[in-house]
Amino acid sequence: MEELNGVTIYWLISIGLLVGYVMDLIMIRQGIGMVGNLVGGVLGAVIVGVALISIGIFAPLVYAGIGSIAFLFLVNVFSFHPEDNIEAKA
């Protein structure tokens, strides 16, 4: 059983950064950008990881990576860029 300590938080942040970087490579010049993907990846991984550790689910680091991917996918797909719609007003 995993416990919430400094090492676990370090791995959750590392997984989030890795997922955010890979998601930025996949979303070439679209979505929320590199900084947004990195921050979103870390937030998604830490929130999911801490929630699963507090519940007592097995392998929270794996689920943190999956949760971070899902969170970044939703954020990148539904990101709104108003400057893309300039031609529609003319």
Summarize the biggest pleated sheet.
none
Q: Mean of the pLDDT scores?
A: 84
Give the CA-CA distance, first to last residue. 60 Å
What is the ordering of alpha helices and beta strands?
HHHH
- Structural classification: mainly alpha
Shape designation = elongated
Q: What's the total count of β strands?
A: 0
Strand content is under 5%
- Overall radius of gyration: 16 Å
As residue ranges, the low-confidence spans are none
Helix percentage = over 70%
Count the helices. How many?
A: 4
Describe the protein in words.
The protein has 90 residues and is mostly helical. Helix content is 72%, strand content 0%. The protein has four helices and no strands. Helix 1 runs parallel beside helix 3 (60-77). The chain is elongated and about 45 Å long.
In short:
72% of the residues lie in helices and 0% in strands.
List keywords for this structure.
90 residues; mainly alpha; 4 helices; elongated
Secondary structure topology:
Elements: H1 6-26, H2 34-55, H3 60-77, H4 86-89
Helix pairs in contact: 1-2, 1-3, 2-3
